[in-house]
Automatic annotation (TrEMBL):
Belongs to the glycosyltransferase 20 family. GO terms for biological process: trehalose biosynthetic process. InterPro entries: Glyco_trans_20 (IPR001830). This is Trehalose-6-phosphate synthase. It comes from the Bacteria. Pfam families: Glyco_transf_20. SUPFAM superfamilies: UDP-Glycosyltransferase/glycogen phosphorylase (SSF53756). GO terms for molecular function: alpha,alpha-trehalose-phosphate synthase (UDP-forming) activity.
Length: 463
């Protein structure tokens, strides 16, 4: 029998992570690794913005091949970066999708820039797409891209995955032209969400606001003669890659340094992009409440917050940075002794290997976003724990990850009392209970990994 050739994949995302950048801290490393391995297996291209600004748009594509994967990137003019990336994507959609109407800006100009850039990206990537290719578009920067490709006559299978939450209908309708945006999304054949909650909100919107025919059980949406399938595909980590990183010399060194510097205190760790969705000031308030309630325990606990800056041209990101610095300073001022400070706040990123070392040296991880599509730090932390002496994951019930990881200590990140109670529980948790929770968590993290995620999405798109 003749073997059926597998389809090429064309991945399209705002940022393109080339293989040589692998190992860079956090979620992006995992996603980049998984997409790179899917691209290696299927062949194909990864297309997106180069991250660089130019004077005028030329549409010139920079094609590169690294380690068996072809990347294709284009530069965008300054005005596009401002309106599309800093503007509509990160000052409108990002806060809205994280339920932050108070931070959501509605500017016609940036909305137009967003549409213009999606059109430009479609125009550039269109000629690279061949018959039979599977096209896989990622994230909120590119919601209308599929429809722009259809307008150019591309009738390939096109799938879309949203890495963020999808907000409830009554928040989403505050977006001017919300209907126009979602109509463009229904040009996709398959739409993936991180969790059932975000999926349900999307289906609810399609039924209530667009009047689409929606089959809730299968996720089938019929609208104006086209069918789209919407499903939840919880993203995982590249388990083998992460655990291999945890066994490197760099990881061992980082682990040792953190342990030595904690000088007998239990280390608790948080690793987050400096983003208001991550609940950082709220977390620091919770830590403050813990020390207020148990002042003696300042000799038992040190909290390390690693928070590389992010999207620094957007005002709300500068505000969150200032607020965090102030709160950390206040608690350290009030609670430090001449030889110890309870909080270490580090404004930079580390390699995945170093982070794995920090995770192993920390007996508690605080992953307490106010809202998060998934959160892969929670999964990385569990992946590298010592099975004989595992640490405790304190996890926000509002992170997508909580829907798979309910054996973590779940918290309401808005409540300093709840956070303080969770830290206390984690600090004193007996070994047996830690092991029991870990064993349940590691199973999900190991089995529902990124390869599983890529495979299920791609095979549904193919089917
Ligand atoms: C989130 C988004 C990604 C984004 C990443 C980093 O995880 O879902 O699409 O790439 O943040 O943000 P940045 O703005 O630096 O790309």
């Amino acid at each position: 029998m003749e073997e059926c050739p597998i389809a090429r994949i064309v991945v399209i995302s705002n940022r393109v992570a080339v293989p040589k950048a692998r190992g860079v801290a956090g979620a992006q490393g995992g996603l980049a690794g998984a997409l790179n391995s899917a691209l290696k297996e299927h062949g194909g291209i990864w297309f997106g913005w180069s991250g660089a600004a130019c004077e005028e748009f030329t549409g010139q594509i920079d094609l590169q091949r690294h380690d068996g994967v072809t990347t294709a990137t284009i530069d965008l003019p300054e005005q596009d970066v401002e309106e599309y990336y800093n503007g509509y994507a990160n000052s409108t959609l990002w806060p809205l999708f994280h339920y932050r109407l108070d931070l959501t800006e509605y500017e016609r100009q940036t909305g137009m820039g967003y549409e213009r850039v999606n059109e430009r990206l479609a125009g550039s990537v269109g000629p690279l797409i061949e018959d039979g290719d599977l096209v896989w578009v990622h994230d909120y920067h590119l919601l209308p891209l599929g429809e722009r490709l259809r307008a150019r006559g591309i009738d390939n299978r096109i799938g879309f995955f949203l890495h963020t939450p999808w907000p409830p209908t009554n928040l989403f309708v505050s977006l001017p032209f919300h209907e126009r945006l979602v109509r463009t999304m229904l040009a996709y054949d398959l739409i993936g969400f991180q969790t059932e909650t975000w999926l349900e909100s999307f289906l609810h919107y399609c039924r209530k606001e667009l009047g689409a025919e929606v089959d809730e059980a299968s996720g089938r949406i019929s609208f104006e003669g086209h069918e789209t399938l919407a499903r939840a595909y919880p993203i995982g980590i590249d388990f083998d890659h992460v655990t291999a990183q945890a066994n490197t010399e760099a990881a061992r060194e980082a682990e040792e340094r953190l342990r030595d510097s904690a000088r007998g205190r239990t280390a608790a760790i948080g690793v987050d992009r400096l983003d208001y969705s991550k609940g950082l000031p709220e977390r620091i308030d919770g830590i403050g409440r813990f020390f207020d309630t148990y002042p003696d325990r300042v000799r038992d606990l040190v909290y390390i917050q690693i928070a590389p800056t992010s999207r620094e041209d957007v005002d709300s990101y500068q505000d969150i940075r200032n607020m965090l610095e102030q709160k950390t300073g206040q608690i350290n001022g009030a609670r430090s002794e001449f030889d110890i400070a309870p909080i270490r706040y580090v404004n930079r990123g580390y390699s995945l290997a170093e982070l794995c070392g920090f995770y192993r040296a920390s007996k508690i991880a605080l992953v307490t976003p106010l809202r998060d599509g998934m959160n892969l730090v929670a999964k990385e932390y569990i992946a590298v724990q010592d099975p004989e002496d595992p640490g405790v994951l304190v996890l926000s019930r509002f992170a997508g990850a909580a829907q798979q990881m309910d054996e973590a200590v779940l918290v309401n990140p808005h409540s300093p009392d709840d956070l303080a109670r969770a830290i206390h529980t984690a600090l004193d948790m007996p070994l047996e209970e830690r092991k029991r929770r870990y064993e349940a968590l590691i199973k999900t993290v190991r089995d529902e990994n990124i390869q599983h995620w890529t495979k299920t999405f791609v095979s549904d798109l193919e089917a």
